[in-house]
What does this fold into?
Amino acid sequence: MSYEEVIFYFVAAVTVLGALGVVLTRNVVHSALFLILALLAVAGVFILLSAEFLAIVQILIYGGAVTILILFVMMLTRVRDMPQALDGPQRPFAALAAGAFLVLSVLAALSSDWPGETREITVVPFREMGEALFRDWAVPFEVASLVLLVALIGAIVLARGEEGE
Amino acid sequence: MLSDWGHVGFLLLLALVFPVGGIASSWMLGLLKIRPQAPDPIKEDIFECGVETEGTAWVQFNFRYYYYALLFVIFDVEAVFLYPWAVSLDEASVTGFIAVVTFIVILTIGLAYAWRKKALEWL
It folds into this structure.
């Protein structure tokens, strides 16, 4: 077993353990922390695939921003005072939906045609990606900033509306 | 290329060993009766000095703090785009510079809007 494989199995095990921690712990804050662990381990998988930019996005956006949002939601709402929000009569339906999704994912994984082993990895260097992003695809890049602007203003308008100013 | 990440892995390992080693060695020395163990209500307080804590830390925060999280997510996405630009500064040249400045200016409009709407005010 090459050292890449050792690292991969370690990172994959951490991902699975983190994901299990998310669903098995009863404390939602612990769940969020386990989620950070799982997302960071996925960033490790991206690094093993030589997708460095994706790894950075995974750490900064998912491991940082998204989990911060989740923790903020827990701070702003009183999750602990509302155990019925975490557990309730909808439990069998939730189990059914989760089970159906699991069966679907397993079926999809079994029936898909995996590309198989490869001897070389296509590495996209950071600078080449920057060149493509800022020269060849500059317009979509600017459109992305507009989308972010719309999201920002929209979020503030929506939050203001709830407040009733 | 992958071996460059070995340095990162080493730092990560160090970051794990440092706190775990401290706790584990303290626990081990406690088991071996080398470390004295004299519990005291003040010593076991969350803070040994300062204001005494009251109630739980899990209180409901003002809804308006959500703005900070939203702004943080938006500008985090912006920061992610700045990394490839910083690395390819030479290749991207003036065109790339203008593209990135436009990108930042458009997002600054959003920051100005949030500021104007008093979303940044601390309560």
